[in-house]
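In the laboratory, one determines a bound structure by crystallizing the protein with its ligand and collecting diffraction data. In a computational setting the workflow is compressed into a single prediction: the sequence and the ligand go in, and a structural description comes out. We illustrate the idea with adenosine-5'-diphosphate.
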Amino acid sequence: MYIVLLGAPGAGKGTQAALLSEKLKLAHISSGDLFRQALANGTELGKQAKMYMEKGQLVPNEVTIKMVLDRITAPDCKNGIILDGFPRNLEQAGALDKALIETGEKIDHAVYIKVSEAELLSRLTGRWVCRGCQAPYHEISSPPKKAGVCDKCGGQLYQRADDNTQTIKKRLQVFFAETAPLIDYYSKAGKLVEMQGEGSMEEISQRIISGLKTKAKK
Ligand code: ADP
Ligand code: ZN
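The predicted complex, in structure-token form:
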């Protein structure tokens, strides 16, 4: 099964992709995590992406598409994948479809997690992420047991450099201008499953799984 997760920054794509990848045994591929890893490792890819990420802009398509298409040919992707953060514009979606056709595969479902703009802003400004396992926390709504320490792996929590008000606003703008057209793209292809992204992590995960089941029956 090949699934795309769509949603604005802060919609909970990363959290939901991790839960779904566990439950459905799919490889979780996050383009943002791939870029952050490259950045941390000081690779050429990381250097190319840095400036765009800091400004909340999209990294150019040629760089991004190559990175993700390379990643999805890895052996752990054979059972299927869940894509988180990619595609983010129509050109990326077209390149993905084309690459999958060549391997006899296709995107089966696109899940759109919908969250109000006010909620997105509050989530992103209070977000802390684990350096070890990427688990997300929120200062107010889901704080860790011990400040600055991950409940799951004991790793150190940090705030992403792009989680500041100015960059957050830009990322939301980019989402509505460039990524939102994908909702229509996947809807026309009969692949869209849309749901409310407000509620507990487990509630939303259940909502996604039952949404996928209902759609499969149609
Ligand atoms: P969020 O969805 O919270 O903004 P991500 O971790 O998905 O966070 O992405 C962080 C940054 O990485 C983006 O603002 C962008 O600069 C870059 N990026 C991630 N995915 C893509 C993509 N598919 N195309 C272009 N740039 C991307
Ligand atoms: Zn952790």
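Residues 9, 31-32, 35, 52-53, 56-59, 64, 85-86, 88, 92, 162, 171 surround adenosine-5'-diphosphate (ligand 1) (CB under 6 Å). Keep in mind that any predicted model is a hypothesis to be tested, not a measurement.
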